[in-house]
Amino acid sequence: MKKILEVQKIRGGYETPYGFVRAVDGCSLVAYEGEILGIAGESGCGKSTFAHLIIGYVKPPLKVLEGTSIIDNTDIYKLSWTERRTKVWGRLVSVIPQYSMNSLNPTKRIKDLVLDVIREKYRTPPPKDKIIEMARVRFEELGLSDKVLDMYPIELSGGMKQRAVIAISTLLNPKLLIADEPTSALDVSTQKRLLQLLYNLVRRKNIVRTLIMISHDIATLRQICDRMCIMYAGKIVELASTEDIINYPLHPYTKGLINSVVSIEPSLRKKVLKGIPGAPPNLINPPPGCRFHPRCPNALPICYKKEPPLVEINERRYVACWLYAET
Questions:
Q1: Of 325, 274, 275, 277, nearest to 300 (Cα)?
Q2: 259 pLDDT above the threshold of 80
Q3: 245: Cα separation from own chain's centroid
Q4: In 225-267, where do the E strands start and end?
Q5: In CATH, what class is 3-92+175-272?
Q6: What strand order describes the sheet that includes 235-241?
Q7: How far is CA 118 from CA 130, 141, 206, 228, 270, in A?
Q8: pTM, 2 dp
Q9: CA gap 238, 27 in Å, rounded
């Protein structure tokens, strides 16, 4: 399978008056063509920061310390900021940001936003009529009337805004699309339609090659993701197929995350919900050893001293836990 994304040992975080926040600390990840990959974890675990580091969108106070991010054979960190803006963002990779419904400029019509995006990507942009026609086709592919192009964001519903953002983000058919909490602030029926749309972008319409979907809601990711990556305190703690993660979780944090999620499935409705005791660590001064050990019910003596490596225990199944690394 062709690799669309290959991230190797990337480390980055935020400069603050109190010290450096190690938001992403040595994470490696591969995403393949035709794949939908989920990144899950509780708020503050580094999911969104990881997305920014993947695409090279690094602005103070965010800082990258080391590592590489290669998207479709292009090493992002070997390019200047201008090259990333004109050659990478929107072409190789696009991001649907958190709270994307609020990312549309309320003073501009949708078609003017489209023109701004496309003109930034070309030294000599196509004629206005051609850009609008390209946008009209894409909007119709995503179930939006071309009348939306003449409307202001305030005239659109939440679901229509979300679709408009996706349409604008994918105008140039990027190889990789990263959707950061795309279903937040949407009602359940709108969430379902949006998930179907994101699924179709990869599987039916071939508009994008690979989708990475970020969410704190593991039940949402389960609906469309082939594989799932679990993050905790700036680290990847487990990576496996979605069914393995859901049915046979290995890392104690993954188990706690799943046990704290409400499910509507008949077989799981009577499940007793269990919270994870304690609180996430301070990433300015994280605990030694495994970062989960202060909250872990299965902590071993080595967990307090030495950080567990992310090891492959079966084909394409990885876990960072001394319960498995020792064997």
A1: 325
A2: yes
A3: 17
A4: 227-232, 235-241
A5: alpha beta
A6: 93-96, 176-180, 210-215, 36-40, 227-232, 235-241, 317-319, 311-314
A7: 11, 18, 20, 33, 51
A8: 0.93
A9: 11
Indicate the length of the chain as a whole number: 327
All structural domains of the chain with their residue ranges: 3-92+175-272, 103-173
Tell me which residue has tokens 């995403």.
31
Give the pLDDT confidence score for residue 266 in this predicted structure. 54
User: What are 11's strand-pairing partners?
Assistant: 25, 66
3-state secondary structure of 177: strand
What is the pLDDT, as a whole number, of residue 264? 47
Contacts of 173 (CB under 8 A, 6+ apart): 207, 208
The token pair at 195 is 């998930």
Question: pLDDT by residue (tens digit) across 264-307?
Answer: 455 555 666 777 888 999 999 999 999 999 999 999 999 999 99
Q: How far apart are CA 73 and CA 100, in angstroms?
A: 28
* Strand partners of residue 5: 31, 71
